[in-house]
Amino acid sequence: MVKNTYCVIMAGGVGARFWPKSRKTMPKQFLDILGTGKSFIRSTFERFLPIVPKENFLVVTNQSYKELVLEHLPELTDKQVLCEPIGRNTAPCIAYAAYSLLKQDPDARMIVTPSDHLVLNEPDFQSIINECLEFATAEGALMTVGIQPTRPETGYGYIQKSNNERISRVKCFTEKPNLELAQTFVECGEFFWNSGIFIWSVKAIVEAFQHHLPEHHALFSSILNDYGTEREKTAIEQVFSECKAISIDYGVMEKADNVYVRCGDFGWSDVGTWGSVYQLSEKDKYENAVVAEACYTYSTERTFISLPKGKIAVVNGLKDYIIVDTPDALLICPRSEEQSIKNYIDDVRFENGEKFI
Amino acid sequence: MVKNTYCVIMAGGVGARFWPKSRKTMPKQFLDILGTGKSFIRSTFERFLPIVPKENFLVVTNQSYKELVLEHLPELTDKQVLCEPIGRNTAPCIAYAAYSLLKQDPDARMIVTPSDHLVLNEPDFQSIINECLEFATAEGALMTVGIQPTRPETGYGYIQKSNNERISRVKCFTEKPNLELAQTFVECGEFFWNSGIFIWSVKAIVEAFQHHLPEHHALFSSILNDYGTEREKTAIEQVFSECKAISIDYGVMEKADNVYVRCGDFGWSDVGTWGSVYQLSEKDKYENAVVAEACYTYSTERTFISLPKGKIAVVNGLKDYIIVDTPDALLICPRSEEQSIKNYIDDVRFENGEKFI
After folding, report:
1. Chain A partners of B337 at a C-beta cutoff of 8 Å?
2. Which residue, A24, A143, B183, B295, is most buried by CB atoms nearer than 10 A?
3. CA proximity to B99, closest of B9, B12, B218
4. What is the pTM (predicted TM-score) of this model?
């Protein structure tokens, strides 16, 4: 564990795809969707704790989630939670953390991670992150972590590597492909899932902003004196109101020439949909996955059932369904229709306002 | 409204068929299953209030429901709730009320009614009851009310009348028939549904007990001095522990020769199952019946949905289902499987004990 290693957890997402369990006031990263006993953000924090001293974590989130972050990560101080006044995609989020660290510790090495993914094999994961930290420091590289694909997933971005080294220069980033392209990617062997995890020195990423997103560089470096002071809140509000929303992949990674990928296979999932939760869950002999104290199923197969604490259900005659119950909203829909959840939310909002959103 | 007219509401049932909404601690008669804003027992009470002075109601129920009865019918005094120590079917229930009234008012005219049925046309109903009261008083008859059948229902008992008079002597009582027999009954025109409502003078029913259920007569008349005193509770416990469980139909009505039926058509239902609640409920253009603040249905037809207050649901892809949600138990089952609810309860009880029953 090295004193100048920092971990930046990006936790500003709303996660509407897990409605009705996720809400605007309680997004996915604060939920224990998989029934592990820990929220995603808590698991993420603990996953990096063997590598990063607890005082070196930063969480970037929306102002409205600050209390939730501190509740889930009571080891952190108030100052370790950076509040975005508004979501502007990943580049401004990462810039906020990077320029804060630039002031605090110019030799900082920085890991950036989503707050709501799953990693099953933590030891393998940690040794890969350590390897990336060393490489990034030695080479001034912008490192990404790629995941060995196991299926032609159309919901992920892909990274193409340029050679067979364990750590390879990146040839190309690709947004979510269609099924045909995804199949070609998986067969070809050069393509890996983009985990959204980045490792770099603060100097390297700041330099990359300077070259590839000069407006963002100008904005975030202009308030360097304000980070960590009582002026920070006002300053960052101004910067966020002026800076363009753009992803780090599109704004920096696809353009820089010192981008490398370390590919691995450590039981990763972005747990992006109820369907992926179903896939990851333990199933009974009828392939039902039940997250509940008790559930009685009859003529029911390949169905995912999630109930609130203390609640039971009797379910008869459903095949390939998602049933998610919460104290104030119940969802019953075919697994094949899970992409419609956003439409359901729109319909609920249209009639009921924000109450159930 | 005549001072010696009394109404006995039988409210001891458990109503397991409405699980998970009905529970041992909250049976059907105390629920507002149809979303009318009133419980069944409250509606029953109000239905008879134009005919019977409020101090002339008696409710016979289990000891454990006494507080619930007084909560739903705050017009009643403690003494108007007769508590059975144990359910012994309808004959002992009616005997308890009849012999209590015999002591209190030997000239009493007595209406006996279930507590959990529906009547849509109350004016017609009330004029039929008044007609029955007059006939029963004039003729010393044991009167029943028959319902014009609208379908070959196999869940009801039938009464065959012996002629075409408005009030006819009963030829025969029949228990729940099979479908073939029910079809014959409906076509034949002589058969009517047994509403479980009886009208008679106390003298006539006591005389009938004396002839047809002499053991019950002996038991209930032996404690005549105890009704309305502080000895009543102990005395009635003794009587119930000794008396045989038997229905009034089987024990008295099928045997007596002064049994008459007044047939009518006043929008009656025993509301015996979720299916009958579905049939009685208002439906949307996809024939869904929803009892909820808000429910968003997609590709969903002929489905009954009942949600707790303040809860919403999104339901996609269900045809002919029953969805009943409560704070601690959810039921999803095909409408064709509603007779399985008793099996579900057995399975829940086997694993979870009485908690959700």
Report:
1. 298, 316-317
2. A143
3. B218
4. 0.86
